[in-house]
Amino acid sequence: MSHAIIELRDVTYAFPDRDATLNGLTFHLHHGEKLGLFGPNGAGKSTMLHILMGLLTPDQGEVELFGVPMSDDKAFEAARLRIGFLFQHSDDQLFCPTVLDDVAFGPLNQGLTRDQAAERAREALETVGLAGFEERIPHRLSGGEKKLVALATVLAMKPEVLVLDEPTTGLSPEAKERLVEILKGLDLARLVVSHDPEFLAATTDRLIAMRDGRIRPGELKPHTHIHVHEEGDVPHQH
Ligand SMILES: Nc1ncnc2c1ncn2[C@@H]1O[C@H](COP(=O)(O)OP(=O)(O)OP(=O)(O)O)[C@@H](O)[C@H]1O
Ligand SMILES: [Mg+2]
């Protein structure tokens, strides 16, 4: 229990010919923690997630996952099988000829048989409300449908921790509500990146912010307001 599930220490990263996007960033996610991460467009949130998944290599600093230093690709490959990572852009997540193949891909990599993986995939598709989409072609789906398939790929892995980059982009209110219920029903540590404060309030316990290439611990605690007024059942904004 003493180890963090995810630990980044003093990570610096610059894209070629650019100033540093991450600049001495330190971050921990411990067992049972549910963290929401927000910050302006271009702050480096997705870059940080790509580094922690081993998709980008930091210029300086260290990544440790499940208490193991990520010293090479093999270490990352093993750790990735235990992390449910949702890309911000679903096209980065989906690359198979059918939806079923995409959702079964993770479980197959984890060592399940074809039948077991297909069963897991069907269950996950049903959970996100896409039963019947098994033979559809991922790149021809709508943006919201792609996001839901990508979420199914994450759930099908039965991961030990969730790392979700903008999980609600493109989702209708109904699909978003379904996702909130799914996440509330999962007792899993998580890091959720989102620009949607209500979603973060519903699915995480504590907020942190990214600024100047670092994590600024938020004093903010996400919370929702309940309010009552005339015509409150008509969709509206405050
Ligand atoms: N492959 C790349 N090459 C050069 N610059 C990049 C590349 N990818 C991202 N960037 C830049 O790095 C910075 C951080 O991008 P990143 O995607 O991490 O931001 P973000 O915090 O996730 O933003 P958003 O809230 O819009 O998703 C941005 O200025 C972006 O333009
Ligand atoms: Mg991003």
Automatic annotation (TrEMBL):
One GO CC term on file: ATP-binding cassette (ABC) transporter complex
Keywords: ATP-binding, Nucleotide-binding, Transport
Gene Ontology MF annotations: ATP binding; ATP hydrolysis activity; ATPase-coupled transmembrane transporter activity
Domain ABC transporter: 6-237
InterPro entries assigned: AAA+_ATPase, ABC_transporter-like_ATP-bd, ABC_transporter-like_CS, ABC_transpr_CbiO/EcfA_su, ECF_ABC_transporter_ATP-bd, P-loop_NTPase
PANTHER family recorded: ENERGY-COUPLING FACTOR TRANSPORTER ATP-BINDING PROTEIN ECFA1, HEAVY METAL TRANSPORTER
UniProt similarity note: Belongs to the ABC transporter superfamily.
Name this polypeptide is given: ABC transporter ATP-binding protein
Organism: Pseudodesulfovibrio indicus
